[in-house]
Amino acid sequence: MSVLAAERPGPVAGRGSGAPARRAVIRWGWRLFLREWRRHVLILAMLAVAVAATIVGLGASTNAVQLKADPTFGTASTVIILRGSDPRLGADIAALRARIGPVDVVAHQQVAVPGSVSTVDLRDQAPGGRFDGGTLRLDSGRYPAGSREVAVTRSTARLFGLEIGSSWTANGRTRRVVGIVENPLDLLDQFALVAPGQLAAPTSVSILTDWQPGPGDGLRLPSGTGMLISSRGKPGTAAVDAVVLALGTLGLLFVGLMAVSGFTVMAQRRLRALGMLASLGATDKHVRLVMLADGAAVGIVGAVAGGVAGLAAWFAFVPTLQSLSGHRIDRFALPWWAVGVSLVLAALTAIGAAWWPARSVTRMSVVAALSGRPSRPQPAHRFAAAGAVVLAGGLALLFFSDHGSEQRRAWFIILGTFATPVGLLLLAPLAIRILAAVGRHTGVAARLAVRDLVRYQARSGAALASVTLAIGIAATIAVSAAASDAPRAAGNLPTDQLMVYTSPDTPSDQVPPLSPSQLQTVTARLDALAGAIHARAVVALQQAYSPAAGLQPAQPGPGGRTVPAGYAAASLSQVTVQGHAISISRVDPLYVATPSLLAYFHIAPSAIDPGADVLSARTDLGGLKIFTPEFHAGPNPQPGSLPAGRAQLWDVTPRIQAFKQLPLYTSDPGTLLTSGALHRIGLEAVTAAWLIQAPGPLTGRQIQTARATAAGVGLYVETAAKQASLAPLRNWSTVVGILLALGVLGMTVGLIRSETAGDLRTLAATGATSTTRRAITGATSGALALLGALLGTAGAYAALLVWYRSDLSPLGRVPVANLAVILAGLPLLAAVGGWLFAGREPPEIARRPLE
Amino acid sequence: MTVLELREVSKVYGDGPAEVHALADVSMTVDDGELVAVMGPSGSGKSTLLTIAGTLEEPTRGQVLVGGAAVSGMSRNDRARLRRRSIGYVFQDFNLLAGLTAAENVSLPLELDGMPGKPARAAGLRALEELGLGERAASFPDELSGGERQRVAIARAVVGERRLLLADEPSGALDSANGEAVMRLIRAACHSGVGGVVVTHDAQLASWADRVVFLRDGRVVDQTAPIPGPESLLAPER
Ligand SMILES: Nc1ncnc2c1ncn2[C@@H]1O[C@H](COP(=O)(O)OP(=O)(O)OP(=O)(O)O)[C@@H](O)[C@H]1O
Ligand SMILES: [Mg+2]
To answer: What residues in A contact B141, CB-CB < 8 Å?
Structure first.
């Protein structure tokens, strides 16, 4: 018995393990996976959610913004608009072709909608044109052919009560509807399509071309008529690509972090078993293999599940996004490379995430592992120093990301987006230490909770990091959404309001006065209409004019209609004087602040400053003037020779008083001229419109009744225009971001708590009540949430400060409600959730499970 | 032949004011077939002695020789091989890997050493049968009683060609009858030529050993033959 086993030559001497050992170790890892599938479900869910969120985010950010084509330009870079009345139109277009190469010609004619201020564009466009780039699509039926056919958009069909097969008379011609068409890049584009060459007398002709006007590139037409040239420059995909890149990077980082925090907790839980394996003679490689096998299983399952869930969510989300963005979205137009990369990286990060804690297990002594003692936390200041450096580096990369070539930009954005949160996350341990120092003087529960966070720094750091990242994303969305949201409410009118005008050109520059008897008839009819739609209020609106200017002659209006003779109304305008040239652009019409209008807005006349000229909720009116045209003829405001001393008539700098309750809709009477100003400037008031307030959103039928009524007395109706706005998308992504943060928080706290069941058991044994248990869990999740919220919000602002550095003013619009939810609501919710969640006694307390 | 030799082994935990001298210049030898009991008050360094002997931990100073080979010169992998081939370890409570059946637990060191699954399983089953656990071979650890678990752990510690059996209070969590059964198995293993070291608080159980080493504050204070108890009279002569 003198031969010792150690001297016996091993079957595979060098490595001593071979395939049987690997098989045995993997078998054990697989059994553990099966035993602990509930815990794996958490990690799996975290991974899958991160992957899915990344896919949906990539899809939304790629598709929410129009990419290569534009609803007006298509793929062309320049649109030249010629007047349709030009008698030598054909020759002009031929000359243009010769000068600038191939062009698409689209002719337009306006069709008035009876009783409404809106018009429909009758369009003569050849389908499949060189530059149409997806601006025309047949939805059903067929394209029109010949002079007696037309295709209409859905909204046009609704407006005129048309369907395929019905006939439609527009501008004196009757055509049969043969198809339903749309502008896929702008679903709100309301038009009717005739066959090419069938528009006899177009109002205007737009010519699409790839030609770009250079400096001194004077275009001249044989006819000598003027034209309007607009260029959109190079298609701006770079900004979109940057968003997609940044989002993809963040998503992957998120996936990786989720995996790391999951596996760190898992490794801590497995510590004793891994120590046992090592005590049996497993090499470090074997120990790592167990965790890696686990990571691969979780990573692959999580990536596949997340990919499936993400694609399903994206497909389900496409219709919503389509109606939000107002353009058709190809559900397969995803950045597939990014999706693929995120799936592969999700699996890889899970493996890497499993490898990392496995590595630290193999670095500690077997005895320490056996006793389940966490390894000594690394000094927090070392992390913090590294974090500060990385954070600064990341911000610098973002800072310089708008310099240099496309290639370099992409890398700067990717690396910057990656380094900034990573740097922030390295600050997590320090934040936990600071919290521990602060929490030293609190009650036993909070103290215990915070001390555990410090003791198990590896797992609490990873948990905090993922919470921080989730909150950081939510905060970034919220803050940048608020920053890019103009303070004005989007839209012309709320859906429950109706404006009725005396002029078809609205809001009127030229107000035709009504005679007393006309006024009486109109009022009676409007009152009847108001009764029919159960209106809450009908308010007559007046505009102001200078009596010195007198009645302006009738002039052509939109849709081939005539704007009758009337008074030139005062408005709030931008008046720029450059040498002899004066340019005037109207910013907001002015309505007179009559007592009935003030009462409608609940403004007491006594609340109005006697010196105020204009009342408004808008904050962007500084530098504008009250402009009252006093010219004597012609549609374009040209100051005529003014009587001495009356110059202020067309150029008065107003004193503006803010009233928050005034509306911000563009067509609502939201900017009011006080009666004081009326007298001071010497203007007179004329009834120009009526506002009818319905009890709820107006139905299509009610709108039709209103149009019919208006048409009967020569008035014009305006209702809420459906419009694309990404504001709801931003709000939703804020909500989703916050929910994601909350979900991550719940998962990490759940994981940590299930790991501390042993401590809780000891606590219960020492006589702690369930209240203590609840308090500890509540304090743990509350503390993590608070730290995450603070770090995440700070990080979001740091990155956005760099991003917006050239103009910081948008950041002045702070999304107070969203931030309050993030900074106060989230920690509170987490604490309460932890409290409630810990109410049920976990089975581990009663009996410690075998590991 | 000496299976285990400790030469002036010291172990210091922590540093500065938190320094703990868990072991101070401990020397001892264990021969083939010899069973040594280690006794001493709590905190005297018994577990530390065992973990160092089992190459689970490195001594601060001194030499450990297993089967005549110095452990200090070995790499981590060499030490792992030593553990799976030559050293069997039985802990007080936490011994078996959940997720593996009793038989798989026992055959694990063999498989880790490269023995294919079938013969390894067969060897494990044989070891279990020798300890009277043949019927429980397919049970998972959480389906076994505490005494059965310790017996499985002993089977795993002696399976193959182990030469050194280290047991840290193997009967600590068991009642006296079960504790005695465990001790009997260890004694039997030593009869077949394995050198054994058992840490115990129980003088009655220590009396199964050939020799008792007393530790106090990390030092060996006494080495005696055991007080003969009634059980030792029952024990078969070596
Ligand atoms: N990892 C460690 N870090 C610091 N001190 C330790 C560590 N492990 C053991 N000690 C200390 O070393 C000394 C010896 O510990 P050891 O576990 O060997 O005692 P023991 O004799 O087994 O006690 P018991 O009978 O209670 O199990 C004790 O004072 C203990 O506090
Ligand atoms: Mg001990």
So the answer is: 850
pLDDT(A515) > 80: yes
Which pTM does this prediction carry? 0.66
Inter-CA distances, A557 with A329, A510, A560, Å: 36, 11, 6
Fold of B2-96+162-234: Rossmann fold (3.40.50)
| Ligand 1 atom 27, closest CA | B42
Ligand 1 atom nearest to CA at B49: 18
Give mean pLDDT, residues A557-585: 75
The 10s digit of each residue's pLDDT in A83-102 is: 877 778 888 888 888 888 88
Flag whether pLDDT at A10 surpasses 70. Answer: no
Element (H, E) at A616: strand A614-616
CA of B173 from ligand 1 middle (Å) equals 19
Whether A737 maps to a domain, the answer reads no
Q: How many CB atoms sit inside 10 A of residue A329's CB?
A: 21
Contact B136, B155 (CB under 8 A): no
A77 CA from centroid of ligand 1 (Å): 80
Q: Which residues span the domain enclosing A704?
A: 497-719
ipTM of the complex: 0.88
Query: Cα separation of A695 and A511, whole Å?
Result: 29
A179-193, A496-510, A667-681, B63-77: the lowest-pLDDT one: A496-510
Domain boundaries, chain B: 2-96+162-234
Distance from Cα A27 to the centre of ligand 2, integer Å: 32
| Tokens standing for residue A171 | 């501008």
Count of structural domains within chain A = 2
| pLDDT for residue B226 | 58
**Tens-place pLDDT, residues A760-812:** 666 666 666 777 777 877 888 888 888 888 888 888 888 888 877 777 777 77
Question: Which has the closest alpha carbon to B35: B158, B172, B167?
Answer: B167
Distance from CA of B56 to the nearest CA of A (A): 5
Smallest CA-to-CA distance from A104 within A177, A211, A190, A184 is with A211
Kindly state whether residue A105 falls inside one of the protein's structural domains. Answer: yes
Contact A20 B84 (CB under 8 A): no
Higher model confidence: residue A77 or residue A374?
Answer: A77
- Ranges A443-452, A592-601, A630-639, most confident: A592-601
Q: Is the shortest distance between the CB of B50 and ligand 1 below 6 Å?
A: no
Does A321 map to a domain?
no
Q: Which chain A residues are closer than 8 Å to B116 by Cβ?
A: 20
Q: Provide residues of A within 8 Å CB-CB of chain B.
A: 1-2, 4-8, 10-12, 15-18, 20-21, 23-25, 27-28, 31-32, 34-35, 272-273, 276-284, 286, 365-367, 370, 849-851
- Residue A681 has, within 13 A of its CA and on its CB side, a CA count of 35
* Residue B51 Cβ < 6 Å to ligand 1: no
Q: How far apart are CA A674 and CA A662, in angstroms?
A: 14
**pLDDT confidence tier of residue A304, bands split at 50, 70 and 90:** very high
A540 within 8 A of A685, measured Cβ to Cβ? no
**Is residue A605 included in any domain, yes or no?**
yes
Q: What pLDDT was estimated at residue A297?
A: 84
Ligand 1 and B56: CB distance under 6 A: no
CA B44 to ligand 1: nearest atom = 21
Residue that terminates a domain, selected from A719, A745, A778? A719
Q: What's the whole-number mean pLDDT along residues A238-247?
A: 62
| Gap from CA of B199 to ligand 2 centroid (Å) | 8
Put simply, whether B200 touches A (Cβ < 8 Å) is: no
State both tokens at A329: 């979205």
Whether ligand 1 lies within 6 angstroms of the CB of B18 is answered as no
| Alpha helices by DSSP H, A665-724 | 675-681, 700-712
Residue range B75-120, pLDDT digits in tens = 888 888 898 889 998 888 777 888 889 999 999 989 888 888 889 9
Measured distance CA(A508)–CA(A567) in Å, rounded: 10
